[in-house]
Amino acid sequence: MLQLCIVQMTLRYARVESRPLGYLPMVIALLLVLVLPARAEPYKLPQFRTADPAAATAAQELSTRSIRLLADADFPPFSFAAQGGGPSGLGVELALAACVEARLSCEVVLLPYGDLLAALRRGDGDAVISGLRLDETSLQDALMTRPWFRTMGRFAVLRDSPVKSSDPKDLAGLRIGVIRDTAHARWLETYYGGSILVPFDDAASAQLALRIGNVQAVFGDGLQMIYGLTSAAAQNCCKLLGGAYSDFDFFSRNIAFLVRAGQADLRDALDYGLDAAQTKGLTEKLFNAYVPLNPW
After folding, report:
1. In this structure, are strands 127-128 and 66-72 parallel, antiparallel, or unpaired?
2. CA 102, CA 55: separation in Å to the nearest integer?
3. pTM reported for the whole predicted model
């Protein structure tokens, strides 16, 4: 089984209001996929997508077409250039798995983030599989598949913390670290008024404060939290508390593929492939390979 080795690398969900996580610029340590002994505790994913049997018809009709998929060249863990220069990442591998399930012949082309939408509109590709935020601009000339993931928030505490849940009552009176001036901070202000919110400039500073005991919990983007807790710098100090929080009024964003306008049949075929990948457990295997802890 392909497993994970910790390699320090930047993850930029930057370019505010442009990326799926554009509301929160961040730099985190990414776990790249390398061949190592199998993980002892693989996790299960929920059935995030509801399968649509009608999408199978579109997949059959497109089986003879060659499909070009566009992806951000610098958007790990979803898409990035591997050491050999070829495309890699969770979104890339999931898209290719969906193509196999839909019997589509697909290739992935990596482009700079700023070129993705223009390339799709020019017809240089059939779909964008990572990088673009789903908003009025990106959807103006594109069709969206049903989402295959969403961004969520997570709490973390020390491994020996007596706190048993992330309920506001259990965290009342405790110091919670959060990145200042973010959607996550505003969410805490709305729902955790009984806690003492401690702002930090970045996630690394917040997690360091947790490790040395200056705060009793931290809250932030789920993937950022996971990669931070599993990095060497964390020294296995901490654990996730409770499950993931999803709130589209604050920090949650859907992640899906964007298909060029006028190709509803391709959108439906990719939806069929994503459904099949989930049903067969392929999506779960890919998440386990790229995300070291359960994002839900």
Report:
1. parallel
2. 9
3. 0.85
Please name the residues in contact with 281: beta carbons below 8 A apart, sequence gap of 6 or more.
none
Q: Distance between CA atoms of 256 and 181, rounded to whole angstroms? A: 27
C-alpha 73 chain-centroid distance = 15
Q: Which residues have CB under 8 Å from 152's CB, separation 6+? A: 221, 222, 244, 245, 246, 251, 252, 295, 296
pLDDT of 63 above 60: yes
Residues 132 and 159 in one domain: no
The DSSP code sequence of 18-56 is TSTTTTS------EEEE--SPPSS--PPP--S---TTHH
Output the pLDDT for position 280.
96
Domain coverage including residue 191: 153-245
21, 22, 25, 28, 204 from 16: Cα distances, Å: 8, 4, 7, 16, 20
Could you tell me the pLDDT band of residue 58, with boundaries at 50, 70 and 90? low
β pairing state of 175-179 and 217-221: parallel
- CB–CB of 188/174 below 8 Å? no
Phi, psi angles (nearest 5°) of residue 229: -70, -30
Structure confidence at residue 2 (pLDDT) = 35
> Whole-angstrom Cα distance, residue 247 to residue 242?
16
Same structural domain, 191 and 140 = no
147: three-class secondary structure by DSSP? coil
3-class state of residue 141 by DSSP: coil
* Within a domain: 181: yes
The HSE-up count of residue 38 (CA atoms within 13 Å, CB side) is 6
* CATH for 231: 3.40.190.10
Q: What tokens were used for 125?
A: 């590709």
Number of domains in the chain: 2
Together in a domain, 135 and 31? yes
Judgement on whether residues 94 and 215 belong to the same structural domain of the protein = no
